[in-house]
């Protein structure tokens, strides 16, 4: 059977979105919404798998993430945005998928493994956390998603989803689900302000799309450069220098960046001056996003309405999928 291409993607609402999300997946989603049917899910249930004691945080960040989506240009007329917990069919499908996955396989999922280590879970990992990749497979397949624009840390989730899809189709004898393909951006992974490999909320090294200009300036001024570059006239290093990494990603004026690199290497370009330049570049990018966000935030009821309407649409699709699943699994009693 030939399946139509459908985009399904999403984020956990554990904090507002940052520049890593922007280059890693948001830009792709803004471009792709013109070419494909696109669904974007706010994964509140997945956020609870390691925040069970903090439901208010998750609740608050559903609105933050929703505002981030709309202010970067995700258009609800083109993209259906929905919230995971209001689609009970996802939970139902997760239960059915759990029989197709071993605990051992989940423990070997590289992303889960890394997260378990960073949270020092060990043997005390919540069962819901360990199995969240199964629930993610249900997120993707409930709308028969085939294209998944995500950051590269999500590749193991797509692999695990496809294993489940293949098992399901093999065992229940029907081509019910298509396999999914991850779509990773050219930038791959954006490093943090401190030079650590990844920008992330938990590492405290992120620039948020919602940061005001002062906060942005402070963060840029704190960025990791060349620790050996002490005086303006000293020659400096470009490699591992976060300011240049960010200029490479965000400055469209490549000639200017090449010129700055040359000057920095030679000596005579101070860190403060260089950072002020990067601040301008980032501030030009973020100002329109910030303005749109402030405008939208004046009417949060209307913004919430967008989420609820998108969710209603997805429920219809999800019910249809579950009808097919029940039939394939001989669970259609009426
Ligand atoms: N795991 C993703 C993250 O942490 C969020 C997510 C949940 C997701 N369900 C998804 C991403 C389905 C893509 C497809 O960012």
From TrEMBL:
Any Pfam family the entry gives: tRNA-synt_1b
Keyword Transcription regulation: no
GO BP term, pick one: tryptophanyl-tRNA aminoacylation
Alphabetical list of CDD domains matching this protein: TrpRS_core
Catalyses which reaction(s): tRNA(Trp) + L-tryptophan + ATP = L-tryptophyl-tRNA(Trp) + AMP + diphosphate + H(+)
This protein's UniProt keywords: Aminoacyl-tRNA synthetase, ATP-binding, Ligase, Nucleotide-binding, Protein biosynthesis
GO MF annotation: an example: ATP binding
GO CC terms, sorted: cytosol
Entry annotated with the keyword ATP-binding: yes
EC code(s) of this entry: 6.1.1.2
Family to which the UniProt record says this protein belongs: Belongs to the class-I aminoacyl-tRNA synthetase family.
Protein name, entry field: Tryptophan--tRNA ligase
Organism this protein belongs to: Candidatus Chromulinivorax destructor
Organism phylogeny: Bacteria, Candidatus Babelota, Candidatus Babeliae, Candidatus Babeliales, Candidatus Chromulinivoraceae
Record gene name: trpS
């Amino acid at each position: 059977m030939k399946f139509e291409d459908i985009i399904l993607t999403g984020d956990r609402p554990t904090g507002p979105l940052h520049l890593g999300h922007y280059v890693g997946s948001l830009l792709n989603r803004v471009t792709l919404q013109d070419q494909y049917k696109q669904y974007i899910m706010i994964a509140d249930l997945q956020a609870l798998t390691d925040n069970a004691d903090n439901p208010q945080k998750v609740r608050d960040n559903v609105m933050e993430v929703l505002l981030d989506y709309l202010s970067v240009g995700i258009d609800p007329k083109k993209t259906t945005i929905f919230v995971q917990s209001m689609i009970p069919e996802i939970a139902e499908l997760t239960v059915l998928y759990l029989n197709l996955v071993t605990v051992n396989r989940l423990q070997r999922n590289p992303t889960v493994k890394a997260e378990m280590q960073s949270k020092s879970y060990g043997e005390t990992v919540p069962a819901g956390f360990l199995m969240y990749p199964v629930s993610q497979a249900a997120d993707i397949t409930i709308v028969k998603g085939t294209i998944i624009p995500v950051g590269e840390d999500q590749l193991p989730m797509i692999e695990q989803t496809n294993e489940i899809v293949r098992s399901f189709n093999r065992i229940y004898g029907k081509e019910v689900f298509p396999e999914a393909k991850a779509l990773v951006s050219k930038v791959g992974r954006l490093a943090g302000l401190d030079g650590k490999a990844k920008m992330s909320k938990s590492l405290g090294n992120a620039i948020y799309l919602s940061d005001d200009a002062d906060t942005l300036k402070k963060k840029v001024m704190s960025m990791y450069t060349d620790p050996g570059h002490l005086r303006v006239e000293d020659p400096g290093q470009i490699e591992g220098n976060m300011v240049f990494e960010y200029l490479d990603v965000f400055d469209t004026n490549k000639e200017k960046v090449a010129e700055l690199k040359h000057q920095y290497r030679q000596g005579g370009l101070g860190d403060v001056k260089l950072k002020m330049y990067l601040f301008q570049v980032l501030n030009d990018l973020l100002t329109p996003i910030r303005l749109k966000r402030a405008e939208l935030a004046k009417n949060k009821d209307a913004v919430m309405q967008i989420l609820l309407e998108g969710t209603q649409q997805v429920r219809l699709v999800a019910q249809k999928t579950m009808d097919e699943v029940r039939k394939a699994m001989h669970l259609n009693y009426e």
